[in-house]
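User: Assemble these into one structure.

Assistant: Restating your components, then the assembled model:
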Amino acid sequence: TAPAVALPATALPPSFRWGVATSAYQIEGAALEDGRTPSIWDTFCRVPGAVVGADNGDVACDHYHRMPQDVALIKSLGVDSYRFSVSWPRVQPGGRGPANPAGLAFYDRLVDELLANGIDPFVTLYHWDLPQELEDAGGWPVRDTAYRFADYAMLVFDKLQDRVDTFTTLNEPWCSAWLGYQVGVHAPGRRNFDDALHAVHHLLLGHGLATQRMQAAQSRPHTYGITLNMGTADPASDTDTDREAARRADGMGLRIYLDPLRYGRYPADVVADLAARGSAFPVHDGDLEVISAPFDLLGVNFYFGQDFAGTDPDGNTHDEQGDPVVRPILPDVARTAMDWPITPERFTRLLVRLHRDYPGLPLVVTENGAAFDDKPDASGYVADDDRTAYLAAHIAAVADARREGADIRGYFAWSLLDNFEWAEGYAKRFGIVHVDYQSQRRTPKQSALWYRDTITRTRG
Ligand code: GBH
């Protein structure tokens, strides 16, 4: 990897928001404490072969018990914001009914601790931990789950709105829908195309219902948003077949979320593609008005961009089911420990494109980061040149996109801590702070020190 370049101090304005991000199931542990019930991830982790090393989030980073020290750690990194998610089954066990006071109290204490340390809390309401009871009732493919989500959101909002400014609804609905219900590599591990498609619609509906209800109940103005995972989908070559594959990938990966959210309609080309295979979004009258409820901020999670080919390696344009081939091809560049290509110039292109195609929507990078094969020394310190270079290149990409006019307000590094990396278990480390899972000792890596220095210099 190329060595990290120091970002010019003026590359980003003093008002730029700098943060670190985590999610509840990935760090909290305390899976059975204070009334929390299982989520789909507690269940999925027990499925043989589902998670590398048969790991689970029972203990994770034990953040639930170490929260004040972790907030002190966040402060020591020099960031001004902390993005965390609220665990639905902690706050509303079973996914229905009244709030669990002990569960809500944890987030109440977290917010107070952050504010006392001058850190702005940036709340994600849902980062993939659906209460298992709601999955047993059908999960996201079922319409009722959208209404259950809005009810849950209000329990959190009522408790925290006096002190929290930013509420985002969903983290990466693409992952919840397709990885959870079609590919089956994430919880709940189901494999059905139409279930996933219905999940997309109900996730978006849940976002809209929750956003409308929070806005109606607010006692002061807040910033409302949603976070999407976004890549770039380029044709692998100039052929019509590859261009068509890239169009389909972009439609299913990005436009089926942003078009309804911003313009109140699913993209016509995707609707036609779906109809050709006998599928359709389960839209009821009025749903698209709800889904397109105005919001203030788009969270962008970016890891890499890819190319798409419309043929398989044997040259076939259709698979065994008769569906057109949309084959991802990873750009031929350096990779991370996830085997993900490192593509910062595509990040700039994505951000500029969002500004062009969905104007008037402020952007915040809610996740960006990388796993590498860390080699801690005896003290736990990791000299992670590779991660440092990754962050430097992607923050420079944000600055480039701003110079091209994109309205990007902030950047959150994924992640504060090494943590439970979903289907990869604890084997993959994304933290800018090393975690020794035996002792739970936290040690900032070189990348964290670089990040702190970068923030300090850009603040002027
Ligand atoms: C994020 O997901 C999560 O929000 C976060 O919890 C997680 O720890 C972090 O990233 C690191 O993984 O190759 O078909 O999957 C990112 C998941 C990975 C989804 C890249 C899109 C590209 C398309 N994204 N993936 S595919």
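The longest strand covers residues 120-126.
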